[in-house]
């Protein structure tokens, strides 16, 4: 995996010094020319390196990674100087209640449940990384109220979904999934009737977001024309064209593919009426969310031959794990048995985003988010937290005091900013220069980031004590 984070200067005395020392030894056995080049590069990097932010009054930061989340992220976070404990399994609530109190960050997938009880026990926790798309496993409100920022990776698998859709378009058009199933049963059925090339056909995309727009480019590369419908006016890619209504898209497309989020407005968006609006012999593909299509109506449209085929990857209810005999009416509802009988219908078990590449991207994205939040306080793209970022402070010059970054999570009440700025400009504690400041609020929680220049260790202590004892304080950190 490529490096996804800048590696800060080593923290002296950390357990990872041994790892770094062995790297230095390896470097010193290189050729003299290589060494000179490396030294020049190192000097250049040293000159432009941002200051290494270290937490004030906090021991070495400890990260708990569960559910075998990205090995690459674990390695990079260790190399960045954090203590990382990496476990293959999810932890039960009991295990979390016992162990979570010693960690500053946690990385999970969907099986570890961070309930409000667990969050209460997580006295040092600053940040949660969900190495997946969903965040239902975390009590997001309780986390925000405790000043804990949560990250996930909602778009790392967009390309994987778009590629699956392209494969489905061709598979439906050539009916080869049915041919393959027949052959596995011993039936040779070589037919060309009702089988088509996709070149020159029209792909209608509903929802032109991360996935829809990638798909648009891939489809055009195969010679298809692309129409799309979206509630927002969106700039087309290539020769694609936005249409004004869903009906217009349905009646003008040979293939209709759905890429909208699950919202009250998209629930049952495609039912009997919309299917009737589609061209006879057209195809429907749903890789978005299971609630968007009325599956019984889809089965009727396929059985009556109004539609020539369909692909479905997502369902209104889905099995909790893998196993035999789980996709049945008894387990999920009548739609499952009805769908299994339909001609030229490709059913897949919610695999749209399930690729090795998507998993790796999730590791990079969430690992980077954890690193940046712990090291610089950056909360951009957080799930439920105010989003704040500032340019990373420059390294102080020789003999200059450090710059400190104040990170203050507080209740969103009037007068807090004034109070903090009064502390920073108080003649008794030191009249500090605030070089940059940024604040955002969300659902009653606010987050202030401020860089203060030329501060001594003593100044930082006094700022920390005064800000963290203000009335609306939830959590204060200072990096310096
Ligand atoms: N099958 C899978 O494994 C898989 C994997 C990833 C994502 N998904 C699903 O795919 C869907 C799309 O994901 P994305 O990352 O492209 O989302 P996105 O947020 O980037 O794009 C969604 C688009 O839909 C548009 N939209 C919203 N409501 C609409 C409406 N009523 N009519 C028309 N357009 C509307 C939005 O304006 C936006 O442009 C989501 O439902 C997501 O959960 C499925």
From TrEMBL:
Family: Belongs to the D-isomer specific 2-hydroxyacid dehydrogenase family.
Keyword Phosphoprotein carried by entry: no
Protein name per UniProt: Phosphoglycerate dehydrogenase
Ranges for domain D-isomer specific 2-hydroxyacid dehydrogenase catalytic: 63-383
High-level lineage: Eukaryota, Fungi, Dikarya, Basidiomycota, Wallemiomycotina
Cited InterPro entries: ACT-like_dom_sf (IPR045865), D-2-hydroxyacid_DH (IPR050857), D-isomer_2_OHA_DH_cat_dom (IPR006139), D-isomer_DH_CS (IPR029753), D-isomer_DH_CS1 (IPR029752), D-isomer_DH_NAD-bd (IPR006140), NAD(P)-bd_dom_sf (IPR036291)
PROSITE patterns, per database record: D_2_HYDROXYACID_DH_1, D_2_HYDROXYACID_DH_2
Region (Disordered) location: 1-25
Record-linked CDD domains: ACT_3PGDH, PGDH_3
Biological process (GO), any one: L-serine biosynthetic process
Pfam families: 2-Hacid_dh, 2-Hacid_dh_C
GO terms for MF: (S)-2-hydroxyglutarate dehydrogenase activity; NAD binding; phosphoglycerate dehydrogenase activity
Species this protein is from: Wallemia hederae
């Amino acid at each position: 995996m490529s490096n996804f984070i800048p590696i800060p200067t080593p923290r002296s005395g950390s357990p990872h010094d041994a790892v770094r020392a062995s790297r230095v030894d390896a470097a010193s056995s290189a050729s003299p020319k290589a060494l000179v080049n490396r030294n020049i590069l190192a000097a250049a990097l040293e000159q432009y390196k941002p200051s290494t932010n270290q937490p004030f009054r906090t021991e070495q930061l400890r990260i708990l990674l569960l559910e075998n989340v990205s090995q690459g992220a674990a390695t990079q976070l260790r190399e960045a100087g954090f203590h990382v404990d990496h476990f293959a399994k999810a932890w039960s609530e009991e295990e979390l209640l016992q162990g979570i109190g010693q960690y500053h960050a946690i990385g999970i997938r969907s099986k570890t449940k961070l309930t409000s009880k667990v969050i209460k026990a997580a006295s040092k926790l600053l940040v949660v990384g969900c190495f997946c798309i969903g965040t239902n496993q975390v009590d997001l409100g309780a986390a925000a109220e405790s000043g804990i920022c949560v990250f996930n990776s909602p778009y790392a698998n967009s390309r994987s979904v778009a590629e699956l859709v392209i494969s489905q378009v061709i598979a439906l058009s050539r009916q080869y999934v049915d041919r393959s199933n027949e052959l596995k049963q011993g039936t040779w059925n070589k037919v060309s009737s009702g089988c088509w090339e996709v070149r020159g056909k029209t792909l209608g995309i509903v929802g032109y977001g991360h996935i829809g727009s990638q798909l648009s480019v891939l489809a055009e590369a195969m010679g298809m024309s692309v129409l799309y419908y979206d509630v927002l006016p969106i700039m087309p890619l290539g020769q694609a064209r936005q249409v004004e209504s869903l009906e217009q898209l349905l009646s003008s497309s040979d293939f209709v593919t759905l890429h909208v989020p699950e919202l009250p407005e998209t629930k049952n968006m495609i039912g009997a009426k919309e299917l009737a609006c589609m061209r006879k012999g057209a195809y429907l593909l749903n890789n978005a969310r299971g609630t968007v299509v009325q599956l019984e109506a889809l089965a009727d449209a396929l059985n009556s031959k109004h539609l020539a085929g369909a692909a479905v990857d997502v369902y209104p209810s889905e099995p909790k794990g893998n196993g035999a005999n789980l996709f049945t009416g008894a387990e999920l509802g009548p739609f499952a048995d009805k769908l299994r009988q339909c001609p030229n219908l490709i059913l897949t078990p919610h695999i749209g985003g399930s690729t090795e590449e998507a998993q790796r991207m999730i590791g990079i994205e969430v690992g980077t988010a954890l690193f940046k939040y712990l090291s610089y306080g950056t909360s951009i793209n957080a799930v439920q937290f105010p989003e704040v970022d500032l340019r990373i402070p420059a390294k102080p010059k020789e003999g200059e005091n450090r710059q400190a970054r104040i990170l203050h999570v507080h209740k969103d009440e009037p007068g807090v900013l004034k109070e903090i700025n009064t502390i920073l400009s108080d003649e008794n504690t030191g009249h500090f220069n605030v070089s940059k400041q940024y604040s955002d609020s969300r659902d009653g929680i606010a987050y202030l980031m401020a860089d203060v220049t030329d501060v001594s260790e003593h100044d930082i202590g006094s700022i920390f004590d005064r800000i963290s004892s203000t009335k609306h304080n939830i959590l204060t950190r200072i990096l310096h």
